[in-house]
TrEMBL record:
Coiled coil: none
CDD domains, A to Z: Ere-like (cd14728)
One family name in Pfam for this protein: Erythro_esteras
Organism: Cohnella yongneupensis
UniProt xrefs under InterPro entries: Emycin_Estase, Hydrolase/PRTase-associated, UCP036794_erythomycin
Protein name in the entry: Erythromycin esterase family protein
């Protein structure tokens, strides 16, 4: 492969990313979309969070975007949502509101960068009418037990028959003692699943918010989204035992379904900013994920909404990151080594050790056929096994834009009391 030709083609698309004027180029491209997807190459890099926050602030304040949806659990994110909207009894500051992010890995949302963004959202929302306030929601599937408890608590305040459906679902899961692995094994191998109970619960709660009193409307939505999370979690843990692509696909389909429910709640013309890992927001069809039968949020939204989706990938050449050596272990600040040769990150660094923006048009041809590694760091990370942390990607097809930060630093976690894993 002609390295000089590759470098020349990349240089033709590279723009500097230093100040607000450079940021404006990206905002101008993204502002017409209904779904702006902002990625990250790790769950533990400060700059990914601060740049997403800066872009989100402008999309909210200048272009009327209605909510942030993140790769987080509904119950804990709903606590933060209540704080940024100024509801009563939501804590004295954002750090207190972040205490519900107490299930490992806590640092993804319990960090200083999120606390600062939450304080900005709260200040922005102050004085706005309730239906004009910007929300912060989680659309992931992991909160099976927490969502069940939230539904029981909410329905316990209501005088209707829905509480019985919730109790039946709770009783079905109760023998597994909060252990997702036990439930998954039982459901997958022995057919002892709770699918019927959670489907019935969701049916009972579906769209109840449409007829709710204004002061209870969002809480009724929360009950439905918790029921959706239980349904998604049940399917996720039931399929993950097989170790194939289906559990991943269950999770990403759920996130799209939750996102579209939020769009319906916010009404005609609503627009959303989504914060998730690159592996979720970058179109899977432009990676080797497709060969393994995997799809993702970016692909599903593009297939349904076309040009109304704008996806921005993020990457870094080197720095530090928050992650852990194994699932459930304490977080650590780790070194991110220089990107491997001929990866997208190394190519961009070779052009110059500064931050860069690449903007791709639909008819982009310069980089369309280049398939190179693109770094992806998870919550479990082993820098010494760096070659395993790259997803082969046609970057101009995977994203609409790519924001490259040459040197990055680790997130600043906020201390929370971690639940047992």
């Amino acid at each position: 492969m002609d390295q000089n030709a590759i470098m020349d083609n990349v240089r033709q698309l590279v723009k500097p990313y230093k100040d607000r004027a450079d940021e404006q180029l990206l905002v101008d491209r993204a502002k017409a979309a209904n779904y702006v997807l902002l990625g990250e190459a790790s769950h533990g890099t400060s700059e990914f969070y601060t740049h997403r926050a800066a872009l989100s602030k402008r999309l909210i304040a200048e272009h009327g975007f209605k909510f942030i949806a993140v790769e987080g659990d509904w119950p804990s994110c709903y606590t933060l949502n209540r704080y940024v909207k100024g509801y009563v009894d939501t804590g004295t500051d954002a750090r207190e509101a972040l205490q519900d992010f107490n299930r490992w890995p806590t640092w993804i949302w319990a960090n200083r960068e999120i606390a600062e963004f939450a304080e900005w959202l709260r200040e922005y929302n102050a004085g706005l009418a309730e239906d004009e306030k910007v929300g912060f929601y989680g659309i992931d599937v992991y909160s099976l037990w927490e969502s069940m408890n939230e539904i029981l608590r909410y329905l316990g305040t209501k005088d209707d028959g829905d509480l019985e459906a919730a109790k039946r679902a709770f009783e079905c899961f109760e023998p597994f003692g909060g252990d997702e692995q036990r439930y998954g094994i039982s459901a997958s191998f022995y057919g002892e699943c709770c699918e019927d109970e959670v489907v019935e619960l969701l049916r009972k709660l579906q769209d109840k918010w449409k007829a709710s009193a204004p002061e209870d409307r969002e809480n009724a939505l929360s009950a439905e989204l918790n029921a959706m999370a239980i349904k998604g979690a049940e399917a996720y843990y039931r399929t993950m035992i097989r170790h194939d692509a289906e559990s991943w696909n269950v999770r990403d389909r759920h996130m799209v379904e939750a996102l579209e429910k939020l769009m319906a709640f916010h009404g005609e013309g609503a627009r959303a900013v989504v914060w998730e890992h690159n592996t979720h927001i970058g179109d899977a069809r432009a990676t080797d994920m497709a060969e393994d039968g995997m799809l993702n949020v970016g692909q599903l939204l593009r297939e349904k909404h076309g040009d109304k989706v704008y996806a921005v990938g993020f990457g870094t050449y080197e720095g530090t990151v928050i992650a852990a050596r194994a699932w459930g272990e304490p977080l650590k600040e780790m070194k991110v080594p220089p990107a491997i040769a001929n990866s997208w990150e190394e190519i961009l660094h070779r052009i110059g050790a500064d931050d860069k923006l690449l903007l791709f048009d639909k008819d982009e041809t310069l980089l369309a056929d280049y398939l190179f590694g693109h770094r992806a760091i998870g919550v479990v990370y082993h820098p010494e096994r760096e070659r395993g942390n790259y997803v082969p990607s046609r970057i101009a097809k995977r994203y609409d834009a790519f924001l490259y930060i040459d040197r990055t630093k680790a997130l600043s976690p906020v201390a929370v009391e971690v639940l047992a894993t």
